[in-house]
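Quick question: what would this complex look like in 3D?
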Amino acid sequence: MSRQRVNLPAISLIAPAVIVLLAIGIYPLLFALDISFRQYQLTKQYLGTGYVGFQNYAAVVNDPLFWQSLLRTGQFFLLTVPLQVVLGVLIALFIDGMRWRPLSFLMRVLLVVPIAVTPTVVGLIGRLLFNRDFGFMNYLLSLFNVPPVSWLGEPVPAMLTIALVDIWQWTPFVALVMISGLSMISQDVLESGQLEAGRGWNLFWHVQAPYLLPGLTAVLILRTADILKLFDMVFVLTRGGPGVSTELVSVYIQRVGFRVFDMGVASAQAILLLILCIVLSRGYIRLFYREIEA
Amino acid sequence: MSARSHSRRGASRHTFTYLWQGVVAVILIAAFLMPVYWMITTALKTTADTFAVPPVLIFQPTFDHFRSVYEEGTVAKSLVNSLIVATSATALSVLIGAPAAYVLARFNFRGKSDLWFWIISNRFISPIVVALPFFLIARDLRLLDTHLALILVYLTFGVPLVVWLCVDQFRAIPREVDEAATVDGATIWQVFFRINLPLAMPGIVVSAILAFITAWNELMFALVLTRAEARTAPVEAANFMTGFGIRWGPMMATGTLIVLPVVIFALLVSRNLVRGLTMGAVK
């Protein structure tokens, strides 16, 4: 099935998208690249905006706060994603195996709710639920005679707070991805699998798990990208604090750019982050869009 | 005898399965909806009820917080701004993205894989990477604090989303439809607008809704590019956290007003949400 060659009217249909791509996709990136080689402090305009070579990059590489924010982002990943995957798979297996189909369908629909809630508002709700004095979380703990925790006032609890909130919001996403993997298994395969492997763990490992693998790969790459992007929920919930204890990489770069106003250094950081994002998306494309890229 | 007792045991095992699955389902639903429920009830509680320890579950609802939010005006204005920006960005994304998706589905050309790469990679690039240059460019063009700046910036995720979801939709339309129309003398514009666009409408609507949700929920660009005039609802909501004495009631009322429309939209397209979030890798 060979496709049509492109002609002028076809170009006119795709031209707007290409223009947009160049104007707001490529140009800003080149702009950022340019600034990353300049001195560009918004609060010290008198210094000018001359080129400084790799000075900004050197500053970034030698900036322990930048590396700490990346490390913290990695810790956040380890705190959230493994649990999201385990819980997501368990919830998917449960919903997929439910006897009463209408309830199974209802749950699938309701799982969408946490994903859709505006992350900014998720941050506000977090402030409410994790409030030290009247928050719901400390009330829950008090039922087990645990003294109130200052969730947002101390480094480790604050990190746990943003992790718990992220787990609440994104476990349903993992579950929905896994459900669509499970729904790929035909009834025949499932029944013959049950004859051979029985039920429970064996059935899961030998029959169902292989169908979950593509979804799992997608989840791991997308969650990595989303955690590198994560800004709004953390910004509202903790502002990166107390101190810098919850300052993930995007929050840190935002601070350097828009609260310290050092555009040059922030751009250099952004370019380094961009490289990481491109590597990720390359991998994603290679894994999921083989036929299209070829 | 054995058959009867067997079936009775089977029936009771069935009942047991229904029962424990029902209980787990209720616990899961409660866990995933509780934060939203808590937000809405806090918006409806008196301030005294909000601070009550242990929390009050049954209370006399009041609309005072919604009223005060409405009367102050800044929240209402920010919701209007959000509506203007998200709707315009969505409309433009569809207008630009749908024809491009059609061409990508039907034609081969040089640079196609590059275009494709850009469309996918947008899902991965952190907004902070482009927020810095967008701020400086908007400042130079005197577009800071305007709807236009945000609308244009929101095309960076709107257009890729629409293109991605619609390419699939156009591929599903048989090529023969196009060929028959071309033989009858229709131009490609007519083939696209008169034949393919109506047929692809379901997919286009879904992609528009997802683009709207993303634009409506966006914070970072709005925070950087707007001040007072074009400030969107998420920025307004985030602002509740600055200053002294958090006003929990109005804050949660604002949150409820922001979240309600997107949750309804998301429920409408719940079957396609995952496809949108994974750029089609998971159907």
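Answer marked as accepted. Residues 71 and 278 of chain B are 41 Å apart (CA to CA).
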